[in-house]
Design goal:
binds nicotinamide-adenine-dinucleotide; Rossmann fold; alpha/beta; 44% helix; six-stranded parallel beta sheet; 14% strand
Length: 276
Amino acid sequence: MRCNCNNFTMAYNLLKGKRGVIFGALNEQSIAWKVAERAVEEGAQIVLTNTPVALRIGAVSKLSERCNTIIIPADATSVEDLKNLVDKAMDHLGGKIDFVLHSVGMSPNIRKNIPYEKIDYNNFFKTIDISALSFHKLLQVLYEKDAMAEYGSVIALSYIAAQRAVEGYSDMAEAKAMLESIARSFGAIYGRKRKVRINTVSQSPTLTTAGQGIAGMADMYNHTNNLSPLGNASAEECADYVVTLFSDLTRKVTMQNLYHDGGYSTMGISAEGLKK
Ligand SMILES: NC(=O)c1ccc[n+]([C@@H]2O[C@H](COP(=O)([O-])OP(=O)(O)OC[C@H]3O[C@@H](n4cnc5c(N)ncnc54)[C@H](O)[C@@H]3O)[C@@H](O)[C@H]2O)c1
């Protein structure tokens, strides 16, 4: 672990004085957990949020103690919950929000091992609502409440199955394609009207609770690790990257899907990969 949140090393002070909201920290493997730790290490004040169920089964209270903050329960599919979250977060943080991480995803079809060619459409709606539409709902609530500071930064986590066929990723592929599209469409409006930037980070396969729910994850992980010139990006490395995108050093980056994958997305044939 890079930091003990009770005793920070202010690595670069990139987020000094900034206020943020982090969705999706479930346990120490979660990408959001690493982002929360890294953001606090860089001087930010944060609020954590997850569903009431995740708060019961996960370890989020441990993270909140370490980061000296509060947890505000919210189901990201509920506009009412999101309104309450944004109001309470601004109260707790003492002003407008500088950054938000949407690290939320779930497919009931994947969870129930239903093959893509036999997909259940009620489950499909839930996948889209949780993993994509929730991002629009969040952005709309932030926009309506004028809750983001100028040059604030909102990041959602995506995966390359939005562009390429990845067997086993099922309806999450459609959800990620929609997520990335929402970042572009809302980014155009939020940028022009309020100078807020919106991006998605397309991360390597990562061994988290959500990641390990994908069929064949271990093989997928090894395949991309072998093919990527720099190897797979870890959750900690994702946190490093996300922190730069929250910082003032990236003020003109918006409406992008940014690959964070050791070069995997641009590779064709790898001599090293072929040998393996
Ligand atoms: N692990 C990977 O290989 C990988 C790769 C690329 C992108 N991602 C994306 O990263 C994000 C975080 O996933 P992770 O890998 O850290 O796994 P994770 O299981 O630790 O995190 C997923 C989170 O989504 C939350 N969530 C589910 N339904 C919700 C709802 N209705 N409202 C609010 N929160 C809800 C869960 O409680 C959990 O905290 C997801 O969007 C995932 O698709 C993961």
